[in-house]
Amino acid sequence: MSLRILDMQLLLLRCAAAGKHSANFCTPIPDEFHGEGWLGERILAVTEQMNSTELLSGQRNLHKQEQALLGMLHSLPWSGQGTLTSSSSSQKSSNFELCFDMEAIRGEPSPRFSQLAKERGVATVFHGTKMENVWSILNCGLWTLSETKFCQHGSILGKGVYFSNNYRTATMFALNQARNCTNSESFQKAWWHFSLVNLLNLSSFNVLEEYTITCFPVFEAQIILPPADGMSTSDEDCTRREGNYFVVPNSWDIRITKLHLTFTFTKKRSMSPFLFAAILALLLIGWMKMYAQAHVLDE
């Protein structure tokens, strides 16, 4: 396993652990992590000092939970054969893009997928999500959450996994979700880690203090197309199309091929001297008024 893939694994697992549904979305996880209390908190605590360079070089002794977690990460089917490439290597750029290509590890499609692909054809589509969901999707696939407690945006087009044939449309969904979750205290705790610094080739943790870093993940996949008009089928869970959107009720009709991670850097705004002086003046005026009122009451 490469250092960068291990860093990606640690970051994605920590993001899943920081989510409010960590008990459901941190699958798989070693048995050593199960017990009383919040699972996400235990994962964040154990991975806090896990640095990929030290882990793969054997620079320090690992305790039981760290050993179990590292063994599990090595055993994941997508850990050794996928390729991770980047399009930027400096925090001076406003964007840093990573692409994790999984086509080499997917193997041959299922007989069902192959047969339907011959009959109906396939389409390359995109699904935008949020960071806390990526770990589960990589390990368990894309499954419909419609009509479950995990469905956050409704199912206006019916039950199924939603895709767009336009990458930019999918990134808009992912970006909106990223803005909602990255400001939370638990997510910031997960974000502040060696894995993020290593993945983005940052010079130090100081960059995290100077910039707000947001990530929006988009999965690229192949799906079975809807039946052509007039085509008879006994499959009740066929893919549906509404304009540029596809709804896939049956997860077996989805083959994930790539994960795109786009990180954006926004310089944190510091308070200007003028604004600081204005706030200080307002506080001083308020204090003087309170003092004057108290003095009048005393008289």
From TrEMBL:
One Pfam family it belongs to: PARP
Keywords of the record, alphabetical order, are:
Glycosyltransferase, Membrane, NAD, Nucleotidyltransferase, Signal, Transferase, Transmembrane, Transmembrane helix
Hey, what's the signal peptide range on this chain?
A: 1-18
List where the protein spans the membrane: 274-292
**InterPro entries listed in its UniProt record:** ARTD_PARP (IPR051838), Poly(ADP-ribose)pol_cat_dom (IPR012317)
Coiled-coil zones:
none
Gene3D superfamilies xref list? 3.90.228.10
Q: Can you provide one Gene Ontology molecular function annotated for this UniProt record?
A: NAD+ poly-ADP-ribosyltransferase activity
Q: Any idea what this protein is called?
A: PARP catalytic domain-containing protein
